[in-house]
Write a structure and sequence with these properties.
single chain; mainly beta; 3 helices; 36% strand
Length: 544
């Protein structure tokens, strides 16, 4: 069932192992989407709401802030059961992004959840009762989970985050037995000595920080390979991390930061990797979803892995060999001066590198020209749809005082500013044809786009913004076909599902995401409520 979900179910974070984020349902289409109305709503725990519901057999499962998990009737919104985690007070007081989880997983009769106190738990999908509970890392030592697991080839795979908290040696990925939660393997996301270990400018392993794995991966069942993104080094400024100045005879590209890792899910073996941005000193990581498509490139059919980092540069590699294929720029950026068309190697604009004692303009900055809200692919149009943002930053390093020991954090201040000559529009949704990398359309607006996008078989692309609007775009032209205003920031991953032959579109809203708060500094006139998280579910009116 996980390999080939029913059209009416949403079983994975991006619905299928391919990572497309696409619903084949077509009851709601370009002609009738204007009639879409509210079917039901459900109040959620206030706070950052970056969640993706899972739907199976008419039951919708949703994660609330601070680990309340609920099962709801997908047609009526009636509560079937709920699980409330007993969290340490320190976790509750910390709140923030680590209190929300971007996805859960379902496997056999269990709902698999990563928690805000860095446990992984299995809940009985029928009752919400805890089946097992394991703790891969100690929350009090700075470890965090921001996304949930992926189940691949019978193994639960979970990435660790929070690795900007000065944990020696950085982050890791773990594989677990779905029956017991037992850890089967652990793969470190920072290279160890003897495995590309000389890429950290001579730094010992205990002085290498970062490389969080804070988005779930995707899985290719044909090659039995999981594709996972890795975040940036910490602290962000390379002169502070020890990655600059470059030491003679040493590499300083900082593996495996800003890379795709190709992993055997059974053993945790690293099959190959590809690094997109060496020595990332801007907090511009390439950690997001990996989309698997089989499309021609340069006259030959290729099995591609497509991803887009914070730079807004779409890049494709061959998912069997790791060979780099192509790149496509979207939003304004000044970090990469050029990209080698054969190898993908990037020439960096030296003027955009932050230096201690200076303020540098770089475009984009920390939240990214694209952030954690996911892109999506429609096989109907062979098009990638991307939520984007146009802006720059005055970046000022925050150096350690003499004798001060690094205890975590990015160690930089980003004062976000519009792109030079900007017309005032920050938010964008782009449609890029993956067959030839051409731009089919680009929707631009003042309010930042703060949700993932959802293309459907009915020719509609859904997405939402900071200004509380939820939109339906024409997938071929970008025309806004419908919009409605919700009670708060549309700041999550919309889905579509079916119950008893009726199609629904669901999206969670709620303020608190660090990305939304950052982008809000660019549009101070847009005011949003501090609280009020909810799940909105839309459907067409009954014909009778």
């Amino acid at each position: 069932m996980l390999l080939n979900p029913s059209d009416g179910d949403w079983l994975h974070w991006r619905r299928t192992y391919t990572g497309w984020g696409y619903s084949p349902l077509e009851q709601i289409n370009k002609e009738n989407v204007k009639n879409l109305g509210v079917a039901w709503t459900w109040s959620l725990t206030p706070g950052a709401t970056e969640t993706t519901p899972i739907v199976h057999d008419g039951v919708l499962y949703i994660h609330n802030n601070l680990d309340k998990v609920q099962a709801l009737d997908g047609a009526t919104g009636d509560l079937l059961w709920e699980y409330i985690r007993d969290l340490p007070q320190a976790v509750i007081d910390a709140g923030g992004n680590t209190a929300t989880k971007r996805n859960m997983a379902i496997y056999q009769d269990k709902l698999i959840v990563s928690t805000s106190d860095t446990h992984i738990i299995a809940l009985d999908a029928k009752s919400g009762q805890v089946v097992w509970d394991v703790q891969p890392a100690d929350w009090s030592k700075g470890w965090r989970y921001s996304a949930g697991p992926l189940v691949a080839d019978g193994v639960i795979i979970q990435g660790m985050t929070g690795c900007g908290n000065a944990q020696p040696g950085g982050c890791f990925i773990t594989g677990h037995n779905p029956e017991t939660g037992e850890e089967l393997w652990r793969l470190y996301s920072i290279a160890r000595d003897g495995e590309e270990g000389d890429s950290w400018n001579g730094l010992p392993v205990e002085s290498r920080f970062g490389a969080s794995v804070w988005i779930a991966g995707t899985y290719d069942p044909d090659t039995k390979t999981v594709f996972t993104g890795v975040g940036q080094p910490y602290p962000w400024i390379a002169e502070m991390s020890g990655l600059l100045p470059a030491q003679e005879g040493k590499k300083n590209n900082a593996l495996y930061s800003d890379s795709t890792l190709a992993i055997d899910p059974k053993t945790g073996e690293l099959k190959w990797y590809h690094q997109y941005l060496e020595n990332d000193t801007w907090d511009l990581d390439y950690v997001y979803e990996r989309i698997l498509v089989d499309l021609p490139f340069d006259g030959t059919d290729r099995k591609q892995v497509v991803t887009t980092g914070k730079l807004g540069i779409i890049e494709a590699i061959d998912r069997e060999s790791g060979e780099w294929l192509w790149a496509k720029e979207t939003v304004p950026q000044n970090v990469v001066a050029s990209i080698d068309p054969e190898t993908g190697a990037k020439t960096i604009n030296q003027d955009a590198i932050p230096r201690i004692g200076e303020t540098t303009v770089n475009c984009p900055a920390d939240p990214g020209g694209r952030g954690w809200p996911a892109t999506a692919y429609s096989p109907r149009t062979q098009t990638l749809y991307l939520p984007l943002a146009e802006y720059c930053s005055n970046t000022t390093p925050q150096p350690l005082s003499p004798g001060q020991i690094y205890t975590g954090g990015g160690r930089a201040t980003f004062a976000r500013i519009p792109v030079e000559g900007s017309d005032g529009n920050i938010g964008r949704v782009d449609a890029i044809k993956l067959t030839d990398q051409s731009t089919a359309w680009s929707h631009r607006q003042r309010a930042p786009i703060t949700s993932a996008v959802l293309p459907t078989g009915g020719g509609v692309v859904f997405g939402g913004d900071l200004n509380r609007y939820f939109y339906a775009f024409d997938d071929e032209t970008g025309e806004v076909l419908w919009k409605t205003r919700t009670n708060n920031v549309v700041n999550s991953f919309p889905i579509s599902y079916e119950v008893d032959g009726k199609q629904y579109v669901a999206v969670a809203v709620g303020n608190g995401s660090s990305q939304a708060r950052s982008l809000a500094t660019l549009t101070p006139e847009i005011r949003v409520p501090a609280a009020g998280s909810a799940l909105w579910v839309f459907a067409l009116p009954d014909t009778n």
